[in-house]
Design brief:
oxidoreductase, 447 residues, single chain, globular, flavoprotein, FAD_mOase_fung, FAD-binding domain-containing protein, FAD-bd
Length: 447
């Protein structure tokens, strides 16, 4: 496949941006990556949970062994209420193992980004630039140019926004669409498209002697829930607190906000041995963010396209956000390979068709995932009498779990998107066979 002068500009070097870089490199598509932070791989943020969806993608990329070496498999999730009363266990990761041959795994953001970065060929790594904060984006009928605050500019064929919930690429999409009088109002996203109902305090601390890597625990109750995942060296606890009022405005927090939450809720049990105050006192790092939720109606405009949190934002309760962003990159890469196989210099309408097909394939899946994640957070925080009832009497019921995971979830997980231009190998197998890639684009890349 000849890609001519076609070049993608990726904005953002988080796990989703790095996944985009890997799949474009595997497809032979030229790219550059711009990251606002001083380093491409940084030790920042809370841990992530990769579900079979994301692990299926890592398997096809040949990265499972590297990922397994820095992550811990989850097994049983213990749940209690605010008084420490046991409200039942769930064994979702073990059911995933049986159904799909692979269990959910917890990993630090640093370790995941390091595995992804190391998988990018050195020649492609040379095209990845830190300290590049985007100021604006301009387009012509055949190009898109990203202008950075340091005065540099980069011109390519498309811009892929992998820059998170507060995406500058998304903001520039809106600005450009508003400036174009021919753009229908239905194709212009809201300025603040996501709604935050909860805020999250995350705390990283050394894994306690009585906690095993892979242990998971949750505390449920009115207005606040916690979720903890233990790694080899450190454990991360997320504290999800309902806001006084939902808001679409971006919220910023300072250390005093963290201390205020801990002062109010510090007595709550995190595990049988540790309280919230205990883990906060033992912290090696912490932070606080608002938990935006929502799915954009429009994921692209002209030569700009969004992936991951820039296009759809989930609460962390089901661990779906990063996994779904990785799947976005797979589908988008397939569509780009398809149009480049037809022409190394695709027209704007060809690019629009590829972007439209990408969103069409991903939209319903992300809408359903967002609703499930938000519903899980609402249930754990007992947002209504009905959600409290579901949490206490239904969510942990083995019969319900069997129905939900085998009948509802498994077919969709087995059909996780796969790259069509590289061999579909390295997959573990379970009761529900993976829907294998047909490899319809492999010849396009090989030529």
């Amino acid at each position: 496949m000849s890609t001519g002068n076609f070049k993608a500009i990726i904005v953002g070097a988080g796990p989703v941006g790095l996944t985009a870089a890997i799949v474009l490199a595997r497809a032979g598509i030229d790219f550059i990556l711009l990251e606002s932070r001083a380093k491409l791989v940084v030790d920042a943020g809370a841990s992530l949970v990769l579900q079979p969806t994301g692990l299926r993608i890592l398997a096809q990329l040949g990265l499972l062994d590297a990922f397994f070496s820095v992550s811990s498999a989850l097994s049983i999730l213990k749940r209690c209420d605010h008084n420490g009363v046991d409200i039942g266990e769930t064994d979702v990761p073990l059911r995933f193992l049986k159904n799909h041959g692979i269990a959910s795994r917890v990993v630090s953001r640093y370790d995941l980004t390091k595995v992804l970065y190391d998988a990018i060929p050195p020649s492609a790594q040379a095209k990845m630039h830190p300290n590049k904060k985007v100021r604006s984006i301009t387009t012509t009928p055949s190009t898109a140019t990203v202008h950075c605050t340091d005065g540099t500019s980069y011109t390519g064929s498309i811009v892929i926004g992998a820059d998170g919930a507060h995406s500058i690429v998304r903001s520039q999409m809106r600005t450009l669409a508003l400036a174009d009088s021919s753009t229908p109002s239905s194709q212009i996203n809201d300025e603040h498209p996501f709604l935050a109902t909860f805020r999250c305090l995350w705390i990283r601390y050394p894994t306690h002697a009585d906690i095993r890597p892979g242990d998971a625990a949750e505390t449920h109750g009115y207005d606040l829930a916690t979720q903890s995942f233990a790694g080899e060296d450190t454990t991360v606890t997320g504290v999800y607190e309902r806001l006084p009022q939902p808001t679409t405005e971006r919220l910023r927090f300072v250390p005093e906000d963290e201390e205020e939450i801990v002062k109010r809720w510090g007595h709550l049990p995190i595990t049988e041995q540790l309280s919230l105050q205990d883990v906060y006192d033992a912290r090696v790092s912490s932070g606080m963010v608002s938990l935006e939720e929502g799915v954009l109606p429009n994921w692209s405009w002209d030569r700009l396209v969004l992936v991951g949190d820039a296009a759809h934002k989930f609460t962390p309760s089901t661990g779906a956000g990063c996994n779904q962003g990785m799947a976005d990159c797979v589908v988008l890469a397939n569509e780009l390979v398809r149009i480049l196989a037809a022409s190394p210099e695709p027209r704007t309408e060809d690019i629009a068709r590829a972007f439209g097909s990408y969103q069409e394939q991903r939209f319903e899946k992300t809408v359903a995932g967002c609703a499930q994640s938000g519903g899980t957070t609402a249930m754990a925080t007992w947002s209504s009498w009905f959600e409290r009832l579901l949490d206490l009497w239904v969510a942990g019921n083995p019969w319900f779990l069997t129905y939900r995971l085998n009948r509802l979830a498994a077919p969709g997980i087995a059909a996780t998107p796969a790259l069509e231009f590289i061999p579909d190998e390295g997959l573990p197998e379970g009761r529900f066979p993976w829907v294998r890639s047909q490899g319809s684009l492999m010849r396009s890349v090989e030529v």
